[in-house]
Each structure stands twice: as C-alpha cells, then as structure tokens.
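Consider the following input, taken from an annotated entry for VWA domain-containing protein (Emticicia agri).
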Amino acid sequence: MTKKFFLGGLLMLCAILFNSCEPDNNRNCPDIFYDDLKITAISEPKIVPGTSKLSMILKVNINSSSFLPVSGLTTGNFKVYEQGTNDECANAISESEANKQFSPSPQKFRHNTMIVLDLSASVTSTALTQLKSSTISFINNIITTSGDDSYLVSIAWFDGEDKLNTLVDFTSDKNKLTNAVQNLSASLSKDPSTDLYGAVIKSVDKAEQRLKDLQKESYISAYSIVIFTDGTDQAARYSKQVALNKVNGANSKISLFTIGLGTEIDKSVLTTIGKNGAVFPQNKNELEAKFIELARVVRGEANSYYLFEYCSPKRAGKVGLVLVVAYDAKKGTYTTKFDATGLTGNCF
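Applying the prediction step yields:
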C-alpha cells in the first residue's frame, strides 16, 4: 500500500513537471518510477554556461528504515530520460548523446567526520588504552589516503565540564590525527563526571557552523558525528529532551552515530541520538571491532554522494529530467526539470 501511494505521488509530480508523462496504455510510456532507492539532490542540476552539460550532486540511500547509504556506483548504474516539448513521454537518452560522466568523489565536496570521545574518569581509568587503539583504527578506515581533502576528520572530547574540547581540528593528515590520539592521557580531563547531553548539543552546533563555513567557500559538504561513551549523562546540565530536539532538528546533511561501551549505558537513548547508526560493544576487548564496523558505515555514507554530469540533446524549451538509479535488484527515480533554451553542442 505504501509503495502504491508513493508511486501515485511520483506520477502526480511527473504530471506537474512534464505535462502528464505518467505511464499510459494509450501512450505506451515506460514505467520508470521506482522507490527502492532514495535519490536526494544535494545540488540541483546546473547548466555549464556555453555548453549542454548538466551537473548535479546526488546522494543515494536504501529507501527503508535502515536508510543505508549506497556506495560504489558507476556510470552504468545511472540511466537518463528526458521529456521535451515534442515528447509525450520521458524517453531514454542514447549513450552517444548523453556522454555521461561520473565521479564518486566530487572535487568541491568535503565529507567531515568528528569523533567525540568521552574522557570521563570511568573511561580514562579502565579503557583508555583500548579507546586509543580503536580510535586510530577508525581513522585509518575513514582516511585511506592521507592528504585526500575529500575526507576530513576532527577529534573532540568531553568530560563533566560544560564544554566540548577540540583535540585536533579537521584535517586529512593521518599522522597528525594518530599522534594526537596516542598522546591522549587521563590528565586531560579535569572533571570526572559525564556531560553527555551537553556534548551532543555542542557537537551538532559545531557541525551546523562547519557546514555554513564550507558553503561560503563554495564547497558542497556533509558531516558525520561519532560519539563514544561508556555511561549516561551525569552532569544533568542539559535535559535529555533538549539534546534529542537538537539531534532531530539537525541539518539533513548531518549524520549521527553512537558507540556505547559496557553495561552502564542507556541503549535506547544512544540509539535515538545515533539515528544513523549505533553499536554496543559489551566490553573493552570488543571496542576496536565495533569502531571499525562503524567506520565502514561512515565511509559508506561519505561515498554515497555522487557528482553526475551528462550532455542534453535538447536545445530549447522546458525539459523534464528523469534519472533512474539501479543497484543490485533495487531501483530509485529522481525527477526535476530545466530550461534547455540556449544550450549548445559544446560539452565536456
């Protein structure tokens, strides 16, 4: 039933965008509307001046409760359809005309991962060694090539004080990150309590500001927050509801993940905070494996953004664009429109 309603909505949208291009027995229009994958436009299609090239950045996820990111797509996973003023239906663009180009790592894209570590007394007294090695493994799985600024990592920490401390600001330098982690010590922490909710609130605020700053520099960016803790909020400086409101109201480009160690955590709270993923090692010996598991999810999240470009054969009028993405046995449809007036034969 949900799929029928979804398809109905897509067809209605298609009618508005394309002057009625829904699949129709009389017109024999292709059935090209799918909802197994969710395709989100991070940037609407832009026409490169003096050409017929359209450029857009898309994010692809499994359209389910897990909302898992889809990485590893290639040009062959994308099929382009257009409906111009002389077309009754959206028709597939031939490969020779479309001249598709594709990049899973757009030059002006930055994926930012902030690791937020609980350094309250319960961690520093019992699990600091394991936390350090686990964090280094996480970094190595996020930044596979040192110096690749498409993937930037920052490390922050909190204890019972009302502040989020920066250990290392955003960088793609693995040596700088790992050296900082190796030098972590219990002496950093001045308050043995746990201000978990404060750390959540401040982490989201920092992410929001980072996205704004990168936008001013014309970067398209996304942000992942990974919070590690071994307990519950003890400082009671902020309420749970205020923290959850901050999480739920965060920019859609911000993903939140949590790692909860041991038996003194509240899994329900951490799962709600970690709305994009939460893992729960039972003891410190399981910590590194769980950090690596989550790093692969975060890396997949970063790699689910794609720069997709193609050349339109249209040269005038309003054009309806339908992009179908296929992944394994799943498909998803993205629709938009553009004005082809003034497009030329120049492309790429």
